[in-house]
Protein 1
Amino acid sequence: MTQKAWRKFLTYVGPGFLVSLAYLDPGNMETDLQAGASHRYELLWLVLVGLIFALIIQSLAANLGVITGKHLSEVCKIEYPLSVKYCLWLLAEVAVIASDIPEVIGTAFSLNILFHIPLWVGVLMSGCSTLLLLSLQRFGVRKLELLITILVFIMAACFFAEMSFVNVPTSEVLKGMFVPKLDGVGAVGDAIALLGALIMPHNLFLHSALVLSRKVPISVRSINDASRYFLIESGLALFVAFLINVAMVSVTGTVCFSKNLSAEDTDLCNDLNLNSASFLLKNTLGRSSSTVYAIALLASGQSSTITGTYAGQYIMQGFLEIKMKRWKRNLMTRCISIAPSLIVSIIGGSSGSGRLIIIASMILSFELPFALIPLLKFSCSSTKMGPHKSSLIIIIISWILGLGIIGANVYFLSTSFVKWLIHSSLPKVANVFIGTIVFPLMAVYIISTIYLTFRKDTVKIYTETKNIDTVQRHVEKGTLDNDQLELRNAPYREDLASIPLPE
């Protein structure tokens, strides 16, 4: 790119990197550790597929915002009937809460490592840490985000250094990355949790809204340039996230499957969670490994809190047109997510809390269709995107990957539940009662995804104006004020045709 193009590109940098922080949250760390400790490098191909798919759908979300001038929740509100709109809103809120659970537990783990605070006390204190984080935003959100990102990348540097120290076998890592495999006990469940932690529904709502902070002049060229720059930015951010996720899986897989592993480390690998994972870095950092790891874990959880807060705001504002102050919105979400985390931390301790993170990631995976299918439908719709709708290749790839994830969710849910019913020690009456509740819910899940997939779009958002190119030419000649064309919201508006043109 030329120097002018680089300067222009830098004006679009921000949304993609902010969104990418969600791919480095404690939920991702937990699922990466579980994947490496249980399956070595065999699930790395899912990390690759997940991040490629994430790049595609995040770029689709960004394009939706740029072209329609509305974020995903706003488009859903306009398009779907009232009952469907409220159902999608509730599911989106559940996704935000599920994504917040790993952040609550990650914060509690980090406080436990740093100050030896009991886990349940750390869960309660996570609400205070959120308020502290929001209070620091008065010094500038960008500065705060930069600080947190630096702390997260410190952890990434530690794992990269550990990779070289433990001599991760490159050939085995590449094989795990490019040869699909799902062997071993719990591989399907771990795979779904891994995808759920990588591809989160609330991120789609967030990315489509963040791009609206950039002014995009009205012209086909400007729209295409903005879409391309957002794609490049998202690609760079997600590539860094991909490398960090691969490093965590590879280091864990190498250390936990090492022949020289001590008895103590073997026990840790058998019950690996965020609270005990600092031993993975002791070869690189020595005695300070636990402190550095805890600080990075705290930064990871708190940085993800920012994305969750913004996503929750845009979801509520888009679906319900309700504006809420950030600290109120974040405190509300955090209080709801604290409840299950607190109960599990008291009853199950660190191992139970680690399993709760996996369950939250699986919930996110099951929630994904209710944000993904509308996005895919809108992205290939002429009524929403006009001539800027996604290309046929992108549409086919997106639907194949999306339907593949949905199919895997349905398969895992149905087979796991049936297997549980067969081997359950509960009385037959209880099994029948549970079955009469769960099977209809599974049917509703499947019917809902079919409805969203095949429902025809009815609302036209994209407005093609006849004088758009004429207006742009006058701007380039200097005969029309460029301020008339700079938009924070819809790049195509009904009132564009009313702009008076010079003769």
Note: The two ends are 37 Å apart (CA to CA).
Protein 2
Amino acid sequence: MVRRRRRQAFQHLKDRIKIKIDSWSTRLLSQGGKEVFIKAILQAIPTYTMGCFLLPKSVCEDIEKIIANFLWQKGYGKRGIHWCSWSNLCELKENGGLGYRNLTKFNLALLAKQGWRLIENPTSLLAKTLKAKYHPNSEFLNSELGNLPSYTWKSIWAAKGLLLSRLCWRIGNGRDVRIEEDIWVPNAENLHIQQVVRNQSKTRVVDLIDSNNRSWKTELLEHTFSTDDVQKILQIPLTTIPHDNFLAWRG
């Protein structure tokens, strides 16, 4: 159970990391050996917990501080100079870093993965339980936090913003995708309407598709969107047999 004193609830993660560092097998590690040890052992310890709960930022910072002290120490129990900030070490190697995990961002990514499972598997026991309790009349992406939510729901719900910022509709039949409100152009950060649709009844993507030829209505697109947007829309492939629209990760 995760109660109000959350720092104490996750203290065991820091204790386990310290025990690993203090073990005899780490005393003679080279700098390269420490890098492997940190990535394969130390940063893997909180992974399961971070996949279920949103750790307080202070806990993540404490864990990173423990790992950074171990990385720079000159010998067992001896402090060393931190020649580089931890944030720089978390950069990709091609960008000059060492590829360590930023635990706060990694925590959010794991929780977003749980949210993605709720979207992809709405018939699972967890999805049905959370839906019945917190959003019985809406989908996960449109859900509200609600009153007196559990810490598990608050954690998964906190990652909803990350999903909303990077999910994009893949067009099948186009019936449920709104032209202006939804993100459905994968090559753009967002689809900004430059001109107002003359026919106000055309509010769904299906209105832009010729159902007989399964192709885009080029003339309508040219009278509706900017030239750049038209080119991006025309690059979206349409299948011969229409299927349901589905959400996918952009990038």
Note: The mean pLDDT is 87.
Protein 3
Amino acid sequence: MGMFLLPDSITNKLNQLLRKFWWGFNEDSSKIQWVPWDQLSSAKEKGGLGFRDLKAFNLAMLAKQSWRVIQDPTSLVSRVLKQKYFSAGEFLDAKTGVGPSFVWRSIMAGLQTLKSGLM
């Protein structure tokens, strides 16, 4: 999850399995869900149990990778990505481009999340 953007179908399925496990899913019967999932997945400080939405968690981990590229431009990964994808400019201005690798598309998804929180 820290290097690749997981497809929505996988994160939705993982979230669904987490909900089923929590509610005691059984093949022949379904249990009553006493509390809405939104409330359970809210932060503990807000009265929830703090379950993570795996799609948001995946994007947060990818944003962390983007932050590492910004903070350490001399690292090997940063230099390779700069040479291949944004040699003429800065990382924050980089575009996905034509035919990018899956890793670059994932990092760009994390960069969009990171840009929304930068000041």
Note: The chain has a mean pLDDT of 87.
